[in-house]
Write a structure and sequence with these properties.
By secondary structure, this protein is of the alpha/beta class. The protein is 35% helix and 21% strand. It has a six-stranded parallel sheet, sandwiched between helices. The chain has a two-stranded antiparallel ribbon with strand order 6-7.
Length: 199
Amino acid sequence: MTQPTPARRLDEFKPDARFAWCVTGSGHMLEESIALARRLPGVDLFLSAAGEEVLPLYGWTLAKLREHFKVLRDNSASSVPVGMLYSGDYHTVVIAPATSNTVAKCAFGISDTLPTNLYAQAGKQCVPGIVFACDTAPSVITHAPKEWVEVRPRAIEFENVERLARFAHTTVARSLDDLQAALDQRLSELKLAWNTSSS
């Protein structure tokens, strides 16, 4: 069996390399995920078409997002912005929150959205990825735009999460605490720190 290629060294990224934070079509822990993204140093947002539809339902219009981030949208068939990974512009790819659809695509090598394309190309470039999977417990209470609802993931969702967790250069977060811990770890590796203010 072929051994996985080591992760890229820090000196292979540009000195001002950033986090590529992808938002998919899930509202689960969406606001909390955006809050974490705002606390990181140097983040660009990459939106799937579904993510762009869902964000305004939680109060995040494109105009509001652009007050805090550079925003890249899923409006090219070939996911042109992915090319910035090749030149060392991004040291980490984060998908948070990740729908079960996105997790399944990543787990089976399908890259037909901006987030899944970024994840696939990050893997091929040995760039670390962090995926905050939404469907990781038998019962999930999640905040829909107008109410709290219970979601009961199926066995296939759990299987896809476990499959993805076995990928090289990938950390799967199964809770918001896991996501923060994975980001803590990555910041430590990068010798960076959380922003003290998210304004």
